[in-house]
Structures are given as structure tokens and as C-alpha cells.
Amino acid sequence: MEDWAEIRRLYRSEKLSQAEIARQLGLARNTVANAVRSDSPPRYERPPVTTSAWAQIEPAVRAVLKQYPTMAASVIAERVGWSGGHSWFSENVARIRPQYAPADPCDRLVHRPGEQVQCDLWFPGALVPDHAGVLRSFPVLVMVAAYSRFIAAVMVPSRVTGDLLAGMWQLLCGRIGAVPRTLLWDNESGIGQRGRLAEGVAGFCGVLGTRLVQARPYDPETKGLVERANGYLGTSFLPGRVFTSPADFNAQLTDWLTMKANMRRHGDPGGRARRGPGGDGGVAAGGPDDGHHLQHPTGPGLLRQPRWQRLLGASGGHRADDHRDRMPGPCGSCLW
């Protein structure tokens, strides 16, 4: 840079010849001539690389990955005869390896009509006062029909077996209006643990003619539908609400589920989740106070086939309230 500036000063200001400038500065005449002709200071430019080492060996690496997509980079280097740096080679192999990774095997879970209702407890926090006016965190029993995504929920006094059975009975009888083939629970202590059901649970299922299945420990994905419903309740129902009692909480929750949550359209089933008799397309009857059987609808407004098939005569099904007088223990009484 300094030589270039000095050459141009001597040539333009001092009017020296190029030969004299080369003699004074001790530079080659070609260097002086190039500096005189250049309008900008010289700078180093790396010549463009036409073919890199990786470009030369990449086809061989791709051929190995196509046949052995999980082969280690060090082994691939041996197979293709690479003798350069290992880290740089491994980075390039890791960059193109996903293109040859096998498809991730997965199964699409399809729930049949009337097959399963997923159950779980949701804890909204200390927001509801008890009879003494103290804010308590009462559990909320949430049940989701796996086929139609219909949500039913009720706040229960505690997590003991009697309250959970009474809550399930109330939701099956009054909200869902039908009995599924399977009730899916986690390892809730009031339901059962270590592969053994709590006292009274087996009798509850026997009276209803259903089966209770418990998911493996620490496996919430097994009942992902009800887990998502819990999150939906926490983000869409709870914010901005004030509750004066558990009964007020249940009233607000029921109205919100009826008017908002169960009117959503779900893309997977292709329809809208509604109350059991309406959304499922054909069940025996709604709740214990209906006192009548709903006819099987066949109009153009239906969005799917009948859900609770076991409740139809041909499937040997039954209404939830068919067993009202035979429910053991606290199931025939009110929760609060």
C-alpha cells in the first residue's frame, strides 16, 4: 500500500520516469508500471476454487450413505479413501446424511366409535372457595370421548375413590349419556396403582359393563387427548373468571363446554364435537332425566357415522342410566 502511494506521488508530482522510480525504491519495473496504471490500491484476492476436495469425493460418500445411511463418518472416510481432516469430513457427512435417513416408522391411531373415553384430573389452582370461604385447589375430573373429542368435566371434592367414581357416573350419565367400551386412566391413586384397581372401581366397571385400563407410569402420551383438553381448559376457560363456590365453577364450566368447547370443528374426525347424543350421531339417550331414547338420525346434517355403537340394539349396548339403581356406594349421591 505504501509503495503504491509513493510510486504514484513520484510519477505524478515529481515527474520522475518509471525507470528512475524503480531505481530509487528498489522495485521491479513491472511493479512500478502496474502501480502507475492502477487507479486503486492493490489487494490480495484468493483465486476461485473450481473443484474442492469435498466436491471430488462427495459422489462416493453419497453412494455409501444411500446403501448404509447410518454408517459412522469415520467408517465412510475409510471406504472412500479420505485422508484429510476428520472433523471437516464429519461435518459435511452430517450435513447430507438426513437426505438418506429412512422414514420414521409411525402408526396412525384411529379411535373407533364408542371405543374409549380418556379420563384425567385437572388442577386449576386455589381459585374456588370452600364452605368456610378459604380458597382451595379442588380437582376437576375431565373426560374426553376419543372419537368425537367431546369434553365433559366436573369439579369434585377430592381425589378419593368415592368422589372419582361419583364424578365419572355424573359425567357418563348426565353429559356424555353413554358408556364406552374402555375408560382410560393414568395411575391415579383413587383409581388404582401397581396393576391393582382401588376398592370399588371393579364393581363400578362391572355394573356399567365397561373396562378400565390404566396407562403405563410416566407415559402421558397414552392419553394425549385428555391431556390436551386439560391444557385447553387452562388457557381458554380459566383466565379472567371468578368463582364463588364449586357449584358456580361447575355451572360456568358446563356453560362454556356447551356453548364453546364442544362446538369446535375438529379436522381429524371431520366433524364437530357435541353432546353425546348429538355429536356421536346415534346413542340411546342423553342423561338420566331425559326419560326417552333418541332416534338414530340419518339426515344430511350428520358429519360422521354413529359413535356409540355399543349402545345400539344391534351392538348389545346400553344407556348409562340403565344402571342408576345398581350403582354401589357414593355413586348414587351428589358430589357436593
UniProtKB/TrEMBL annotation:
GO terms for biological process: DNA integration. InterPro entries: Cro/C1-type_HTH, Integrase_cat-core, RNaseH-like_sf, RNaseH_sf. Residues 7-34 form the HTH cro/C1-type domain. PROSITE patterns: HTH_CROC1 (PS50943), INTEGRASE (PS50994). Residues 318-327 have a biased composition (Basic and acidic residues). GO terms for molecular function: nucleic acid binding. Residues 109-270 form the Integrase catalytic domain. SUPFAM superfamilies: Ribonuclease H-like. Residues 276-285 have a biased composition (Gly residues). Residues 264-336 are annotated as: Disordered. NCBIfam families: transpos_IS21. This is Transposase. It comes from Mycolicibacterium gilvum.
